[in-house]
Amino acid sequence: MPHDSFGVYTILTGYEGKGKCWFCGAVFPDKRARRFCSNICRSKYQQSFYWSWASNAAIRRASYRCKDCGVSGKRRLQVHHIIPLNGSDRIKNVLNKRENLVVLCKKCHLKNHEIRSR
Ligand SMILES: [Zn+2]
Ligand SMILES: [Zn+2]
User: Could you read off the pLDDT of 27-48 as tens digits, one per residue?
Assistant: First the structure.
């Protein structure tokens, strides 16, 4: 696992550990230790790849509704990966990016998985 002065990291965008902003790839003007060019990039990175942020952001974007049946209520909702994780680490993963997440209620989520495995 690569690491820098902040600790261990996972390579998600490919910009990690190269003296560039991890999200947008902007080159840092100096050698000060940092990972992001701005707080905006930091939060975009988190919301794109870190499950705890990405899943909450997906539910917010979906206005707390199931995409298939429209049922609402945060506790009934689950966040589904369109391209499945297939056992890869959920906590930090490129597959947590917003285009790959869809918000479904438990029922529709189950239905979705049944369709795929047929
Ligand atoms: Zn940036
Ligand atoms: Zn539903």
Answer: 998 888 899 999 999 999 999 9
